Amino acid sequence: METHILFFVAAVAAGLINSLAGGGGLITFPLLALVVPPVVADATSALALLPAYPGAVWRTRGKLREIPRLWLWLLLVPSALGGLVGALMLVRTDDRNFLFLVPWLVLGGTVLFALEPRLSRRRGAGRERGLTTALWPLAAAVVFVVAIYGGYFGAGIGILMISALSLLRMGDVHRVVPFKNLLAGACGAWPWSC
User: Fold this and answer.
1) Which domain holds residue 185?
2) Total tally of structural domains belonging to the chain
3) At a CB cut-off of 8 Å and minimum separation 6, what does 26 contact?
4) What does the longest C-alpha to C-alpha distance in the chain come to?
5) Which tops the pLDDT comparison, 12 or 122?
6) Does residue 29 contact residue 64 with C-beta atoms inside 8 Å?
């Protein structure tokens, strides 16, 4: 019984962390991996965290209204499709290959997260809000790749999505976090359904 309570508390805490900044899967995945195979732990972690996204999106819907509809659709569709691709990859991966890839995925995500402030400063992220039309395909591609990661591994997707949106100059943290919640929720809906 105590184990069930621990998992419940971890899922609630991870959902709160995800709605604020991301990284809740880094709590739920290792706990679940202690009791079920890694691929099952990953999909279960995604399912456990999924209910927090609609609440977070609803809570910040006012900030989402500030984002042009074109940007919402431009990045929402690649996020959902990337999540589906990642989820399909997950269900076709055995535990051994998954365990081999996870440290590399975490390392790649950590490097992107660490480099994002430097890259944003170099590109002058503070001067302009949003991307020029010529860079929209790049933005869609970046979100698609991040969503593949989210559909495949899930843990840390919020942090990666914040880094990607900041790098793409989608605004300050008050604008990026609600957008992240929408996109991460869209890409995280797939693992449990595949």
Assistant:
1) 2-193
2) 1
3) 155, 156
4) 56
5) 12
6) no
